[in-house]
């Protein structure tokens, strides 16, 4: 969607620059879509532009999920049929819109035999495995493969900067940010394992989300298994412990809600933070802020920290040859998320076949008929409501 709006529609930057920012986000820990949203504003209007573009991308979903976690978590664990139908329709449309955008990126970034194979293998690996080391490994393999296959090609950067007007912080500021990210990570890891060992308080929550945000690569589908294992406490027999931060039922109910909301899937953290805070008698906003900032901050800090160096290494031949492979891997990972999200929506849908049909209609409406996206979203919600009313399969 970023590509469709900021490259094709508004011409804010060239296809090449967008592909490089996308690849840079894939190479860094944290939520790629969030990192790209901050980078888009930064290359146009500096640090303030980056903060504004990133915040505008995040806040609608973050605010809604905070409200959901504070006031509707119990309701969502057993939603009325009409609401489940609407959520199903919205979720199906959301997957269809991602699938349409992925199709466009596949045609542009996986348009050779080598890149098509790289993207397909990366997608298959991401579907089959979910280990956190898999994604950086795929990026490295893609980088190496196209450096070998394109070794005789001249990849010299030609033309203008393609819309790059700023890099945000200078190189000194970028280095300080990277150092700050590492210092905070070490501090919370040490405190959570010494003074606050086995605790259930705010620092323990922040440590979990900040640690996951610092080591995760890829999209929201990757972070979910890690969050589930950390916030849902179980004994050796698989039974939930009394001091579990979030119940499994609350976890999956919130997951169904966040898939129907605007913004990145990582906004799920605000919902989880609210539930944890309420359970342990803290203000719900404290839990939402700690969890949300904990998960997002590492990736954003690293993107701001690395951008000043990007303009220098983007001219290197070895980087430009490897960029083709890294982009192919990145698109493959998004393709995998489309398949995974389709399965998730199907499994969670109260009317499974109807959900598939809504997704199919939405894909055609967005990809071929070019209908304005908000209209498609509203249509999906109405079709979901109709599925409930008609008691469809």
Secondary-structure topology with pairs:
Layout: H1 2-9, H2 15-27, H3 32-71, H4 73-76, H5 81-109, H6 113-128, H7 134-149, H8 171-192, H9 202-215, H10 220-231, H11 248-258, H12 268-279, H13 284-313, H14 317-348, H15 352-367, H16 373-389
Describe the structure.
The chain is an all-alpha fold. The chain is built from 16 helices and no strands. The protein has helices at residues 2-9, 15-27, 32-71, 73-76, 81-109, 113-128, 134-149, 171-192, 202-215, 220-231, 248-258, 268-279, 284-313, 317-348, 352-367, 373-389. α6 (113-128) runs antiparallel to α7. The radius of gyration is 21 Å and the shape is globular. The model has no long low-confidence stretch (mean pLDDT 83).
Give the overall form.
globular
SSE string:
HHHHHHHHHHHHHHHH
| Strand residue content | under 5%
Number of helices: 16
Short description:
This protein is mainly alpha-helical. It is built from 16 helices and no strands. The radius of gyration is 21 Å and the shape is globular.
Question: What features would you highlight for this structure?
Answer:
mainly alpha; 393 residues
């Amino acid at each position: 969607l970023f590509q469709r709006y900021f490259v094709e529609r508004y011409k804010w930057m060239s296809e090449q620059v967008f592909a490089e920012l996308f690849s840079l986000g894939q190479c860094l820990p944290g939520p790629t879509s969030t990192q790209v949203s901050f980078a888009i504003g930064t290359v146009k209007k500096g640090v303030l532009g980056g903060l504004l573009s990133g915040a505008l991308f995040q806040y609608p979903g973050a605010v809604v999920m905070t409200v959901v976690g504070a006031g509707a978590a119990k309701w969502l664990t057993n939603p009325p049929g009409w609401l489940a139908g609407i959520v199903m329709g919205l979720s199906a449309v959301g997957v269809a819109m991602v699938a349409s955008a992925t199709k466009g990126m596949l045609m542009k970034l996986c348009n050779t035999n080598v890149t098509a194979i790289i993207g397909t293998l990366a997608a298959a690996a991401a579907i089959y495995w979910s280990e956190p080391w898999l994604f950086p490994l795929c990026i490295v393999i893609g980088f190496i493969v196209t450096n070998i296959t394109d070794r005789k090609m001249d990849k010299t950067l030609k033309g203008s900067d393609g819309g790059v007007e700023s890099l945000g912080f200078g190189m000194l500021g970028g280095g300080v940010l990277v150092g700050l990210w590492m210092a905070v990570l070490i501090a919370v890891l040490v405190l959570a394992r010494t003074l606050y060992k086995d605790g259930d308080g705010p620092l323990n929550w922040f440590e979990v989300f900040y640690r996951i945000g610092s080591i995760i690569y890829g999209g929201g589908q990757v972070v979910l298994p890690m969050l589930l294992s950390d916030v849902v406490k179980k004994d050796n027999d698989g039974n939930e412990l009394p001091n579990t931060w979030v119940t499994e039922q609350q976890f999956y109910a919130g997951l169904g809600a966040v898939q129907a909301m605007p913004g990145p899937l990582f906004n799920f953290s605000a919902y989880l933070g609210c539930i944890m805070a309420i359970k342990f008698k803290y203000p719900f906003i404290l839990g939402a802020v700690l969890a949300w900032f904990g998960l997002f901050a590492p990736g954003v800090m690293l993107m701001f920290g690395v951008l000043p160096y990007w303009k220098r290494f983007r001219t290197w031949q070895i980087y430009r040859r490897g960029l083709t492979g890294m982009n192919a891997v990145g698109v493959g990972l998004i393709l995998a998320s489309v398949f995974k999200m389709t399965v998730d929506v199907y499994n969670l849908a109260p009317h499974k076949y109807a959900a598939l049909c809504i997704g199919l209609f939405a894909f055609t409406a967005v990809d071929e008929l070019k209908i304005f996206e908000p209209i498609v979203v509203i249509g999906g919600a109405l079709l979901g409501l109709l599925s409930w009313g008609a008691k469809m399969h």
